[in-house]
Amino acid sequence: MKALFKCQVCGYVHEGEAPPAFCPKCGAPAEKFTRLNDESAQKIYASDRTNDIEMEIISLASRISALCAEGLDIGLDPGCIDAFRKARDESWVIKQRFKAELATHMNKGKW
Ligand SMILES: [Zn+2]
Question: What is the distance in A from the centroid of ligand 1 to the CA of 7?
């Protein structure tokens, strides 16, 4: 596990042997970075792939919503319209559920 350094100005997390000369996000100098302890670093590493998966699911849910809108515009028959409406509503729930979960990760430093 590499060392992680967190910018105390903006929260950007740097991976490496030492903090960067300047924060890539806000431009703060290296002195504004603090090295994360092992527990905090472990949280970030353990959640890294999970966060990526959840963001991809959010993106897919947005795609489902867009496809449903296209299907509703076509409006082929009542069965299709019903299925597209339900899928659109379900995709919203999926998207919002994972957004809320990602927010809890951020609040717990798992980012
Ligand atoms: Zn920063």
Answer: 5
Judge whether 14 and 5 are in contact, CB under 8 Å.
yes
CATH of the domain at 16: 2.20.28.10
53 and 101: one domain? yes
Confidence at residue 94, expressed as pLDDT on a 0 to 100 scale = 98
Ligand 1 centroid, distance to 106 Cα (angstroms): 16
Per-residue pLDDT tens digits for 10-66: 999 999 999 999 999 999 999 999 999 999 999 999 899 999 999 999 999 999 999
- Over range 88-104, report the average pLDDT: 97
Interval between CA 32 and ligand 1 midpoint (Å): 8
Distance from chain centroid for Cα 106: 9
For residues 65 and 102, membership in a common domain is answered with yes
